[in-house]
Design brief:
mainly alpha; 67% helix; flat; Retrotransposon gag domain-containing protein; Retrotrans_gag_dom
């Protein structure tokens, strides 16, 4: 057997083992100890800050790891919505949504409608002309 080849094979094997052990150590060090509990803490704190579709996407990603049932998730989702959007959804003529997907769809629908109304309102607002005033000349005499 060629000593150079044997030495190279040993180095490759050592490098592979090192990489494997490194990955294991990295995961153990940087992954949350309790993924479920961390997800539950996040889902209880998440709030809609800008657009409903972004909120829904963030909520869905976190919800996958919580192990909560849909009833609990609906409560957390609703609580994360702005109060005005919660009210609009809950007081609709068809009644309160019964599924989590309905909550998602209605939040996005009503948020998009609101954003459209606000954009149209801005277009219709008259432009207020700014009046430039001349300063009075004062002579000291």
């Amino acid at each position: 057997m060629n000593p150079v080849k044997a030495n190279t094979d040993e180095k490759k094997k050592a490098a592979e083992e090192t990489w494997s052990s490194f990955k294991q150590r990295f995961r153990a060090e940087w992954q949350p100890v309790n993924v479920v509990r961390e997800a539950q803490a996040k889902i209880e704190q998440i709030r809609m800050t800008d657009r409903a579709d972004e909120y829904v996407n963030r909520f869905r990603l976190i919800a996958m790891d919580t192990k909560y049932d849909d009833e609990a998730l609906m409560r957390f989702f609703r609580e994360g919505l702005p109060e005005s959007l919660q009210t609009k959804i809950m007081l609709r003529t068809d009644g309160e949504p019964e599924t989590l997907d309905e909550w998602y769809k209605l939040a996005i629908k009503y948020d998009n409608q609101y954003k459209l109304v606000m954009a149209n309102r801005k277009k219709r607002e008259p432009i207020k002309p700014k009046i430039a005033r001349k300063e009075k000349e004062v002579t000291v005499g």
